[in-house]
Amino acid sequence: MSTDIARMRNIGISAHIDSGKTTLTERVLFYCKKIHKIHEVKGKDGVGATMDSMDLERERGITITSATTNVEWAEHSINIIDTPGHVDFTIEVERSLRVLDSAILVLCSVGGVQSQTITVNRQLRRYNVPFIAFVNKLDRVGANPFKVREQIADKLGHNAVLMQLPIGLESAFRGIIDLVTMKALYFDGPEGEDIRVEDIPAELAAEAAEKREEMLDAASMYSDELMEAVLEGRPTEALVRAAVRRGVVARKLVPVFVGSAYRNKGIQTLLDAVVHYLPNPSEVENRAIDLDQEGAEHVLTNDPATKTVALAFKLEDGAYGQLTYIRIYQGGLRKGDELVNTRSGQKIKVGRLVRMHADTMAEIQEAGSGDIVALFGVECASGDTFCSPGLNLAMTAIYVPEPVISLAIEPVDKNAADRMAKALGRFTKEDPTFRTHVDPESNETIIQGMGELHLDVYVERMKREYRAEVKTGMPQVAYREAIGQKVDFDYTHKKQTGGSGQYARVIGRLEPLAKGAYEFSNEVRGGRIPREFIPSCDKGFKAVMKKGQLIGFPVTGVRVVLTDGQYHPVDSSDIAFQTAAQGAFRQVYASAKPQILEPIMKVSVEGPTEFAGNVFATISQRRGTIVSSVEDGTFSRVDAEVPLSEMFGYSMVLRSLTQGKAEFTMEFLKYGRVPAYIAELLTEQHLEKKKKESQK
Amino acid sequence: MTLTVKEELIKRSPLRILEKSISGGLGKGNIGVLASRKGVGKTACLVHIATDKLLQNKPIIHVSYSSRVDYIITWYEDIFKEIAKKPKMKSALDTFDELIRNRVIMNFKQDGAKTEQVLRSLEAMIVHANFRAETVIVDGLDFAQAGPEDLRKFKDFAGRLGLEVWFSASLKKDDPLFDDRGIPFELADYLSVVDVLISLQHHGDHVHFSLVKDHDRLAPKDLRLKLDPTTLLIAKDVRARTR
Hints:
The complex is a heterodimer of chains A (696) and B (243). By secondary structure, chain A is of the alpha+beta class. Chain A is built from 16 helices and 38 strands.
């Protein structure tokens, strides 16, 4: 086990769907001797790639949950987090990025920079993650690594520079020229495990010299020493590597490597690049929030000898019981150590400590700062911070978007109900964008998430992993209600029919709030409403806004200004003022021009240009706005904003329309106003539903 | 006196001066060209023309040959911000989000996209996707590469679908750029296809507009418009009037 922090790497592998990321990871494990046989993703051998440890992933050929694994390469310990590519699961990607120090961005040599690549690039920027690029699938028809490098520069705005050249392309792809050593490399043996080093083929010598010069020019920007050496005509390997590394760590240079994971070419050299150019944990600055000092930022030291700070970034319920994946930012973990969960205040004792491979694991005694390991039997939620007693820090909160879609689920029998409850408990702990509650009116269990596929996957997992068979309803969009204009209220709640009565009067106004969901402002003077009842009013407004009168969805974007009121020395109470606030809201809501808002998704459709016209039509049929269409020769991308409610089943429509040649991604963008005719329809449906319920 | 602030803004826009000068506007089926050296402000003008249509709730298509869509989006945001700065404008204008619902950006690669392909995509947008734009802005077409026959195809297309199409043309040759009638030498071959030709030139600290061709008339005329160097909006040129 390596404990030297300089020989440690925490890397993620990020990419667009189908760029061959899982295949690449599989090869990495093979060359690092972690597995003894290579399985393909949609494998004919029925085994599936090793990193996709869930059955479901094997079946669908996508990677859902980021399993982490540790490998050794060139006396370095590398923790790899396999991140999912589909946008519906971006919370997983973002969580991984939080704990990574660097990444490999995998691009398809044919598709180049695609919509998902742009999303991932944005995430890498948000978390300030340095990365190198790997252009995969050079054996494919239409492979063009030069175009992809250009796109990384143009579309992603990076200073991208080729570190290698392909020898041949498409079916003639044979090997790689290393521009640092100026040697040709061939990957021999049945699985490409024997690297044969030769001189550069004569016909490629001129091109290699030219590209090397470009590479040296770019690298010299980060090292005066190298610049001098280049001028004197004798740059050494070590100087070049140090300069490139400096550029990468500063996120100013993106070296581009090439290969074909499927054909077993270029993987070992990529691993070398990870060791050469990506930062070790001590080269990355991490910050935590000091909970004792009102959220002041605290720079973590990486010092293994100091007090421990670690982040639980992933929970997994696997064959071995509950596993908590944890990243150590300073100090270390030893069996028997005592740690405090700074969110709950709970103390835990470090029990079994393991280093994970995708499906197997190795027990270890301790782990040092910078490392990623897993703990057994720890009760916590994803995103919790653990500290040594005496420290009270929280790693910066991970940005969690609000769910936009919900689905009613119903277990088929009593057994299924128990298992479903267990599964839901697990999923909500694992994934903060996945939520569940029981609707108090219909008594249905509702699950909420970031998209159709997101919820589908959890329903499938319930069946497979928990044997919980459930029936699902129609997916339901998470609408919101809002007010369109300012309105005054003056409402008296009075109930004085013998015994102790109730009396409260509230006066004020409701105003639309551009940013934020709710604001309460108290401008009552002279004790017209006693101070102890002000929070009661606040509470009353909050409660009534949970269900709007138009379609029963939460009302957001309201500022309540309470200006005046009246009370009764005997009959006024907390409850009376809450009721008055609710009554006031209900009374004036209709005159505040209430509106229905719906989630609008940012949709990107990519495919051959010949289908662009069809794609335009599908967007406009779905009440979508086409923002832009980009045509790049035979390939085109359409970016649009489309209401989520119109996107159900879109993947099927798109597939049949384009013979499966186009694909789309979508993510939540904003809430937008529903057009009047649809608002009417929704209101009618709501009234009907209410009528039915009251008849029951 | 029943004009809203927005109507007032549209009515008072310097673009009305432009329209008046070119016999009521470019007109359906016609081609307009803004010509100048690089970096003088053609894109700003095109975006201002497009925004003026958007304010009138008229859909537009912005065709561009640059490599990045986000640059174009930023142009619109900037121009809109400048317009919204005018007094009383803030409350009167729809939000920018609502305004750009009527805008589609179509981006093509200069050396990859043939004019036929561009027109096919435009037709798909207007006909299949039912995006009924009447104005199309084409920014960054390389005239030297495209040739007069390509512009002719645009004109036929504009005639068939009832569009007015505004182009920008970057002048790249050495000085002198213009002949004695104010026609750019580089665009002489295109003149028969172009209905309205306007040239932009630096005059001291601002950019000045000259009408070179107005439909059937070939008579250089000062448009009394300038590109305001701080806002990058088209504005009345007060100096031109007093001269």
